Amino acid sequence: MCQIGLIVKKDYMLTFVLFLVLGYLSGSIPFGFIIPKIKGIDIRKIGSKGTTATNVARALGWRWGILVALLDILKAIIPTYLAARPYIINPWQVSLIALTPTVGHIFPVWLNFKGGRGASTFFGASLVLVGPKFLILSFVIWITILILFKIVSLTNLLFAWIFSLLLLVFFPWYFIYGILGSSLITLALRENIQRLKKGEEPKISLKW
């Protein structure tokens, strides 16, 4: 019986590790680089030189920026959803798997570990963890911040930490996930934060 238990535990841990790798590789898919490249543009030489949906929107228009954002959300939803139903039951392990697309997005292996800012992937993974109803409320908060400041980087930064506080109140078992995700986004936005301090971070037009 002990040997059977060890085998089950070993298989379970192997599944967990495989999902960690799957989450990272999925998050590493650089849609913000691929889509402009298909259209003959190296996004790393334009604007902020980042592979973010915002930078793609500046280069190609908001329709393409929104497409990139949706794909970035999707690449976080898929591994998190698969892990949570029903392969990984432990909440803290699901939380770690949910973080890996954001890690992959910010540090993609395919682009020398220089990627986006992680907000879209964090949002996508969170959608699976807390459900669409709570995310709709969160999205309303995000839109409100964007309308007030008209700066995407600041909106993503503030929203990430506000979202973490909401997790503490409504989903306390995912609070550490929120803190870690917010910290990753803050790290990825460090250059934007410097520009914000200098008043040099560009604002966006809310027109389509």
Commentary on this structure:
This protein has 208 residues and is mainly alpha-helical. Helix content is 75%, strand content 0%. It has one domain. It has ten helices and no strands.
What structural keywords apply?
208 residues, mainly alpha, 10 helices, globular, disordered N terminus
Condensed summary:
With 208 residues, the protein is an all-alpha fold. The protein has helices at 2-28, 31-38, 53-60, 62-87, 91-106, 119-130, 132-149, 152-170, 175-188, 190-198.
| Low-confidence parts | 1-8
Q: How far apart lie the N and C ends?
A: 63 Å
Which class do the helix and strand fractions yield? mainly alpha
Radius of gyration: 18 Å
How many alpha or pi helices? 10
Proportion of strand residues = under 5%
The helix content, as a percent range, equals: over 70%
Per DSSP E runs of 2 or more residues, the count of β-strands stands at: 0
Order of helices and strands: HHHHHHHHHH
Give the SSE map.
Elements: H1 2-28, H2 31-38, H3 53-60, H4 62-87, H5 91-106, H6 119-130, H7 132-149, H8 152-170, H9 175-188, H10 190-198
